[in-house]
Amino acid sequence: MRSQIHLPEEYKNLLTSKRNLSEVGEMLSGKKHIHTVCSEAKCPNIGKCFKSGTATFLIMGSKCTRDCAFCAIDKNPTSPIDEDESDEVIDAVRKMNLKYVVITSVTRDDIEDGGAEYFNLLSSRIKNEFPGIMVETLVPDFRQNISNLKKIEKKNIDVFNHNLETVKELYPKVRSKADYGFSLSMLREAKSMGMTVKTGIMVGLGETEKEIGELFEDISDAGAEILTIGQYFMPTKNHYQVQKYYLSEEFDALKKMAEGIGIKNVVSGVFVRSSYNAYETYKGVKK
Ligand code: SF4
What we know:
Elements: H1 18-27, E1 35-36, H2 37-40, H3 46-51, E2 54-59, E3 63-64, E4 74-75, H4 85-96, E5 100-105, H5 116-129, E6 134-138, H6 146-149, E7 159-161, H7 171-174, H8 180-192, E8 196-203, H9 209-222, E9 226-231, H10 248-261, E10 265-268, H11 278-286
Helix pairs in contact: 8-9
Protein backbone atom coordinates (compact mmCIF):
# COMPACT_ATOMS: atom_id res chain seq x y z
CA MET A 1 0.00 0.00 0.00
CA ARG A 2 1.31 3.48 -0.88
CA SER A 3 2.01 5.64 2.17
CA GLN A 4 0.25 8.98 2.29
CA ILE A 5 2.48 11.97 1.48
CA HIS A 6 1.43 14.93 3.60
CA LEU A 7 1.43 18.54 2.51
CA PRO A 8 4.22 20.41 4.33
CA GLU A 9 3.10 23.06 6.81
CA GLU A 10 4.87 25.84 4.86
CA TYR A 11 2.62 25.22 1.83
CA LYS A 12 -0.54 26.03 3.74
CA ASN A 13 0.07 29.80 4.01
CA LEU A 14 0.11 30.25 0.28
CA LEU A 15 -3.48 29.79 -0.75
CA THR A 16 -5.06 31.57 -3.70
CA SER A 17 -7.04 34.69 -2.95
CA LYS A 18 -10.62 34.37 -4.16
CA ARG A 19 -10.73 38.11 -4.66
CA ASN A 20 -7.93 38.06 -7.21
CA LEU A 21 -9.56 35.23 -9.11
CA SER A 22 -12.84 37.08 -9.32
CA GLU A 23 -11.10 40.28 -10.50
CA VAL A 24 -9.76 38.41 -13.49
CA GLY A 25 -13.12 36.76 -14.03
CA GLU A 26 -14.76 40.19 -14.27
CA MET A 27 -12.21 41.38 -16.81
CA LEU A 28 -12.99 38.43 -19.01
CA SER A 29 -16.74 38.38 -18.57
CA GLY A 30 -18.62 37.93 -21.83
CA LYS A 31 -15.66 36.30 -23.53
CA LYS A 32 -16.77 32.84 -24.50
CA HIS A 33 -13.77 31.72 -26.47
CA ILE A 34 -10.76 32.53 -24.35
CA HIS A 35 -9.36 31.24 -21.14
CA THR A 36 -6.53 32.50 -18.98
CA VAL A 37 -4.41 29.77 -17.53
CA CYS A 38 -4.25 32.02 -14.48
CA SER A 39 -7.92 31.58 -13.60
CA GLU A 40 -8.55 28.13 -15.21
CA ALA A 41 -5.75 26.55 -13.22
CA LYS A 42 -6.56 28.67 -10.14
CA CYS A 43 -2.91 29.66 -10.12
CA PRO A 44 -1.81 30.75 -6.62
CA ASN A 45 0.29 33.55 -8.13
CA ILE A 46 -2.58 35.21 -9.94
CA GLY A 47 -2.69 38.33 -7.75
CA LYS A 48 1.03 39.00 -8.10
CA CYS A 49 1.15 38.46 -11.86
CA PHE A 50 -2.02 40.41 -12.48
CA LYS A 51 -0.78 43.38 -10.46
CA SER A 52 2.45 43.43 -12.45
CA GLY A 53 0.48 43.50 -15.70
CA THR A 54 1.05 39.89 -16.73
CA ALA A 55 -1.52 37.30 -17.84
CA THR A 56 -1.38 33.98 -19.64
CA PHE A 57 -3.90 33.13 -22.36
CA LEU A 58 -4.71 29.61 -23.43
CA ILE A 59 -5.37 29.54 -27.17
CA MET A 60 -6.60 27.00 -29.75
CA GLY A 61 -9.46 25.93 -27.51
CA SER A 62 -9.38 24.14 -24.20
CA LYS A 63 -9.11 20.50 -25.28
CA CYS A 64 -5.85 18.68 -25.91
CA THR A 65 -4.81 15.81 -28.18
CA ARG A 66 -2.23 14.54 -25.65
CA ASP A 67 -2.76 12.75 -22.36
CA CYS A 68 -0.04 13.79 -19.92
CA ALA A 69 -0.58 12.01 -16.62
CA PHE A 70 -0.21 15.17 -14.54
CA CYS A 71 -2.63 17.36 -16.48
CA ALA A 72 -6.35 17.89 -15.94
CA ILE A 73 -7.14 19.62 -19.20
CA ASP A 74 -10.01 18.15 -21.24
CA LYS A 75 -9.03 15.82 -24.04
CA ASN A 76 -9.86 15.26 -27.72
CA PRO A 77 -10.66 18.53 -29.45
CA THR A 78 -13.32 18.09 -32.07
CA SER A 79 -13.50 21.52 -33.63
CA PRO A 80 -11.17 23.82 -35.55
CA ILE A 81 -9.83 26.99 -33.91
CA ASP A 82 -12.68 29.37 -33.18
CA GLU A 83 -12.55 32.44 -35.41
CA ASP A 84 -13.55 34.74 -32.55
CA GLU A 85 -10.80 33.57 -30.25
CA SER A 86 -8.00 35.86 -31.43
CA ASP A 87 -10.27 38.94 -31.40
CA GLU A 88 -11.24 38.17 -27.84
CA VAL A 89 -7.61 37.79 -26.79
CA ILE A 90 -6.80 41.19 -28.31
CA ASP A 91 -9.78 42.74 -26.57
CA ALA A 92 -8.78 41.21 -23.23
CA VAL A 93 -5.19 42.44 -23.56
CA ARG A 94 -6.57 45.95 -24.09
CA LYS A 95 -9.04 45.74 -21.22
CA MET A 96 -6.55 44.28 -18.75
CA ASN A 97 -3.93 46.93 -19.62
CA LEU A 98 -1.16 44.33 -19.76
CA LYS A 99 2.58 44.91 -20.05
CA TYR A 100 3.53 41.30 -20.61
CA VAL A 101 1.40 38.67 -22.33
CA VAL A 102 2.05 34.96 -22.31
CA ILE A 103 0.32 32.96 -25.03
CA THR A 104 0.15 29.25 -24.55
CA SER A 105 -1.99 26.42 -25.85
CA VAL A 106 -3.11 22.89 -25.57
CA THR A 107 -1.41 20.50 -27.99
CA ARG A 108 -3.30 20.27 -31.29
CA ASP A 109 -1.93 17.31 -33.21
CA ASP A 110 -5.10 17.49 -35.31
CA ILE A 111 -3.95 20.77 -36.93
CA GLU A 112 -1.48 20.41 -39.77
CA ASP A 113 1.30 22.57 -38.34
CA GLY A 114 0.29 22.04 -34.72
CA GLY A 115 -0.81 25.69 -34.56
CA ALA A 116 2.57 27.31 -35.28
CA GLU A 117 1.23 29.74 -37.87
CA TYR A 118 -1.60 30.76 -35.55
CA PHE A 119 0.84 31.47 -32.70
CA ASN A 120 2.84 33.65 -35.05
CA LEU A 121 -0.18 35.55 -36.36
CA LEU A 122 -1.60 36.24 -32.93
CA SER A 123 1.79 37.37 -31.55
CA SER A 124 2.18 39.65 -34.53
CA ARG A 125 -1.28 41.17 -33.98
CA ILE A 126 -0.53 41.81 -30.30
CA LYS A 127 2.82 43.41 -31.13
CA ASN A 128 1.25 45.61 -33.80
CA GLU A 129 -1.77 46.71 -31.81
CA PHE A 130 0.05 47.32 -28.52
CA PRO A 131 3.44 48.89 -29.19
CA GLY A 132 5.79 48.32 -26.26
CA ILE A 133 4.02 45.22 -24.97
CA MET A 134 6.13 42.14 -24.40
CA VAL A 135 5.06 38.74 -25.70
CA GLU A 136 6.12 35.32 -24.52
CA THR A 137 4.96 32.24 -26.41
CA LEU A 138 4.82 29.03 -24.42
CA VAL A 139 4.41 26.54 -27.22
CA PRO A 140 3.60 22.83 -27.66
CA ASP A 141 5.92 20.75 -29.86
CA PHE A 142 4.11 21.51 -33.15
CA ARG A 143 3.70 17.87 -34.12
CA GLN A 144 7.41 17.30 -33.53
CA ASN A 145 8.34 18.96 -36.77
CA ILE A 146 11.09 21.59 -36.66
CA SER A 147 9.92 23.23 -39.87
CA ASN A 148 6.70 24.18 -38.05
CA LEU A 149 8.71 25.87 -35.30
CA LYS A 150 10.41 28.00 -37.96
CA LYS A 151 7.05 29.69 -38.66
CA ILE A 152 7.45 31.59 -35.39
CA GLU A 153 9.15 34.87 -36.24
CA LYS A 154 11.59 36.36 -33.77
CA LYS A 155 10.27 39.87 -34.37
CA ASN A 156 6.89 38.90 -32.93
CA ILE A 157 8.07 37.58 -29.60
CA ASP A 158 10.38 38.51 -26.75
CA VAL A 159 10.66 35.11 -25.11
CA PHE A 160 10.31 31.65 -26.63
CA ASN A 161 9.20 29.12 -24.01
CA HIS A 162 8.75 25.37 -24.34
CA ASN A 163 8.45 23.34 -21.16
CA LEU A 164 10.43 20.15 -20.73
CA GLU A 165 8.22 19.46 -17.68
CA THR A 166 10.30 16.62 -16.20
CA VAL A 167 13.42 14.46 -16.49
CA LYS A 168 13.98 12.24 -19.53
CA GLU A 169 13.47 9.04 -17.52
CA LEU A 170 9.88 9.98 -16.56
CA TYR A 171 8.64 10.82 -20.04
CA PRO A 172 7.14 7.37 -20.76
CA LYS A 173 5.16 7.54 -17.51
CA VAL A 174 3.99 11.12 -17.38
CA ARG A 175 4.40 12.62 -20.85
CA SER A 176 4.04 9.57 -23.04
CA LYS A 177 3.22 11.26 -26.35
CA ALA A 178 6.05 13.78 -26.09
CA ASP A 179 9.69 13.20 -26.98
CA TYR A 180 12.40 14.49 -24.66
CA GLY A 181 15.02 14.70 -27.42
CA PHE A 182 12.69 16.59 -29.72
CA SER A 183 11.65 19.04 -27.02
CA LEU A 184 15.33 19.77 -26.36
CA SER A 185 15.89 20.30 -30.07
CA MET A 186 13.07 22.89 -30.04
CA LEU A 187 15.01 24.91 -27.45
CA ARG A 188 18.23 24.54 -29.44
CA GLU A 189 16.56 25.60 -32.69
CA ALA A 190 14.86 28.62 -31.11
CA LYS A 191 18.23 29.69 -29.70
CA SER A 192 19.83 29.38 -33.13
CA MET A 193 17.02 31.61 -34.47
CA GLY A 194 18.25 34.31 -32.07
CA MET A 195 15.43 34.07 -29.54
CA THR A 196 15.57 34.36 -25.74
CA VAL A 197 14.81 30.78 -24.70
CA LYS A 198 12.99 29.65 -21.58
CA THR A 199 11.83 26.29 -20.24
CA GLY A 200 10.13 24.97 -17.14
CA ILE A 201 9.97 21.83 -15.06
CA MET A 202 7.96 20.41 -12.17
CA VAL A 203 9.50 18.40 -9.37
CA GLY A 204 7.82 15.88 -7.11
CA LEU A 205 7.07 13.35 -9.87
CA GLY A 206 9.69 10.83 -8.72
CA GLU A 207 12.84 12.25 -10.31
CA THR A 208 16.24 11.60 -8.72
CA GLU A 209 18.86 14.25 -7.99
CA LYS A 210 21.16 12.71 -10.59
CA GLU A 211 18.40 12.85 -13.22
CA ILE A 212 17.70 16.49 -12.35
CA GLY A 213 21.41 17.30 -12.75
CA GLU A 214 21.43 15.70 -16.21
CA LEU A 215 18.29 17.61 -17.15
CA PHE A 216 19.91 20.91 -16.13
CA GLU A 217 23.00 20.01 -18.20
CA ASP A 218 20.78 19.37 -21.24
CA ILE A 219 18.89 22.62 -20.73
CA SER A 220 22.11 24.59 -20.42
CA ASP A 221 23.63 22.90 -23.51
CA ALA A 222 20.49 23.75 -25.51
CA GLY A 223 21.06 27.44 -24.74
CA ALA A 224 18.07 28.18 -22.51
CA GLU A 225 18.59 31.32 -20.47
CA ILE A 226 15.55 31.09 -18.21
CA LEU A 227 14.38 28.10 -16.17
CA THR A 228 11.35 27.84 -13.89
CA ILE A 229 11.12 25.08 -11.28
CA GLY A 230 7.93 24.40 -9.29
CA GLN A 231 6.24 21.71 -7.24
CA TYR A 232 3.86 19.26 -8.95
CA PHE A 233 0.39 19.05 -7.39
CA MET A 234 -2.19 16.44 -8.34
CA PRO A 235 -5.06 18.20 -10.10
CA THR A 236 -7.45 15.44 -8.90
CA LYS A 237 -6.98 12.29 -6.85
CA ASN A 238 -7.13 10.25 -10.06
CA HIS A 239 -4.05 11.89 -11.55
CA TYR A 240 -0.41 10.87 -11.26
CA GLN A 241 0.53 10.59 -7.60
CA VAL A 242 2.84 13.21 -6.05
CA GLN A 243 6.02 11.38 -5.05
CA LYS A 244 7.52 14.13 -2.95
CA TYR A 245 6.82 17.64 -1.66
CA TYR A 246 10.00 19.71 -1.84
CA LEU A 247 10.68 22.27 0.90
CA SER A 248 11.78 25.87 0.29
CA GLU A 249 15.40 25.10 1.05
CA GLU A 250 15.35 22.30 -1.52
CA PHE A 251 14.03 24.72 -4.14
CA ASP A 252 16.89 27.07 -3.23
CA ALA A 253 19.36 24.20 -3.64
CA LEU A 254 17.92 23.35 -7.08
CA LYS A 255 18.30 26.97 -8.14
CA LYS A 256 21.94 26.98 -7.04
CA MET A 257 22.55 23.70 -8.82
CA ALA A 258 21.04 24.98 -12.11
CA GLU A 259 22.94 28.26 -11.90
CA GLY A 260 26.13 26.35 -11.16
CA ILE A 261 25.59 24.38 -14.37
CA GLY A 262 25.30 27.62 -16.32
CA ILE A 263 21.61 28.56 -16.58
CA LYS A 264 21.59 32.30 -16.00
CA ASN A 265 18.07 33.02 -14.73
CA VAL A 266 16.48 30.41 -12.50
CA VAL A 267 13.20 30.92 -10.66
CA SER A 268 12.58 28.12 -8.20
CA GLY A 269 9.88 27.68 -5.56
CA VAL A 270 6.85 25.70 -4.49
CA PHE A 271 4.31 27.69 -6.49
CA VAL A 272 6.52 28.77 -9.35
CA ARG A 273 4.81 28.15 -12.68
CA SER A 274 6.06 28.80 -16.22
CA SER A 275 4.71 32.29 -16.37
CA TYR A 276 5.30 33.18 -12.72
CA ASN A 277 6.71 36.69 -12.46
CA ALA A 278 7.54 36.42 -16.17
CA TYR A 279 7.96 40.14 -16.70
CA GLU A 280 10.39 40.58 -13.80
CA THR A 281 12.34 37.51 -14.89
CA TYR A 282 12.59 38.78 -18.45
CA LYS A 283 13.91 42.12 -17.21
CA GLY A 284 16.60 40.16 -15.35
CA VAL A 285 17.76 38.57 -18.60
CA LYS A 286 18.05 41.90 -20.33
CA LYS A 287 20.25 43.50 -17.62
S1 SF4 B 1 0.18 18.54 -23.79
FE1 SF4 B 1 -0.10 20.15 -22.25
S2 SF4 B 1 -2.31 20.54 -22.18
FE2 SF4 B 1 -2.00 18.59 -23.26
S3 SF4 B 1 -2.24 17.00 -21.70
FE3 SF4 B 1 -0.04 17.49 -21.83
S4 SF4 B 1 0.32 19.13 -20.28
FE4 SF4 B 1 -1.92 18.98 -20.63
